[in-house]
Design goal:
The complex is a heterodimer of chains A (122) and B (108). Chain A is mostly beta strands and 122 residues long. In chain A, 0% of the residues lie in helices and 50% in strands. Chain A has no helices and 11 strands. Chain B has no helices and 11 strands. Chain B has strands at 4-7, 10-13, 19-25, 34-39, 46-50, 54-55, 63-68, 71-76, 86-91, 98-99, 103-107. The chains are: A mainly beta (122), B mainly beta (108).
């Protein structure tokens, strides 16, 4: 079955760290760029970060630049998001998303996971 | 960044009616790199349309997309009960990629 399954969400205090993981199955993972998109309560979708098929091209939203790090392990068919110095405004559902092509840009998103909830609160 | 504004915020319609959703961009979306996604509570968002007018695999021909430049439209010709959801537009022509605020299509 073609799917993305996120894990690693939970409750964390402001300033602490959390690492999200995404397990891919049913497609050739290393042929495609991958992204993280988040959805905060009462707000719209926000693209967080993207990585090309070979990790050669990476980008971040300004809101997370310098705090979050995206990475992938093609051998394990997995995508990661290391989130440091978490803020209350980072609280959201985080979705693992597959790009429709190998490059990080110029491709729509054709497969989404169900998301994992990150709650930032003291 | 290219800000996408969707209207209306909520569309209250009955099954069988036609739904017209609008997405307006603050800057021209080059190559019509504009997609639409359907999102139901507790489920993964699903790709409906890409390149403004190309239906994704498995999507009913009741769905059609149109537009170019800064104005785009998603039309659902006859609403099926399974179509009631939130729909988001998304531009992937320039970084940072952005999404509209969503249009909720609810049962009247």
């Amino acid at each position: 079955e073609v799917q993305l399954v996120e894990s690693g969400g939970g409750l964390v205090q402001p300033g602490r760290s959390l690492r999200l993981s995404c397990a891919a199955s049913g497609f050739t993972f290393d042929d495609y760029a991958m992204h993280w998109v988040r959805h905060a309560p009462g707000k719209g979708l926000e693209w967080v970060s993207g990585i090309s098929w070979n990790s050669g091209s990476i980008d971040y939203a300004d809101s997370v630049k310098g705090r979050f790090t995206i990475s992938r392990d093609n051998a394990k068919k997995s995508l990661y998001l290391q989130m440091n110095s978490l803020r209350t405004e980072d609280m959201a559902f985080y979705y693992c998303v597959k790009g429709a092509g190998a490059t990080r840009t110029l491709w729509h998103f054709d497969l989404w996971g169900r998301g994992t909830l990150v709650t930032v609160s003291s | 960044e290219n800000v996408l504004t969707q209207s209306p915020g909520t569309l209250s319609l009955s099954p069988g009616e036609r739904a017209t959703l609008s997405c307006r961009a603050s800057q021209s979306v080059s190559h019509n790199y504009l997609a639409w996604y359907q999102h139901k509570p507790g489920q993964a968002p699903r790709l409906i349309m890409y390149g403004a007018s190309n239906r994704a695999t498995g999507i009913s021909d009741r769905f059609s997309g149109s537009g170019s430049g800064t104005d785009f439209t998603l039309t659902i010709s006859r609403l099926d009960p399974e179509d009631f959801a939130v729909y988001y537009c998304h531009q992937y022509s320039s970084s940072p990629f952005t999404f509209g605020g969503g249009t909720k299509v609810e049962i009247k």
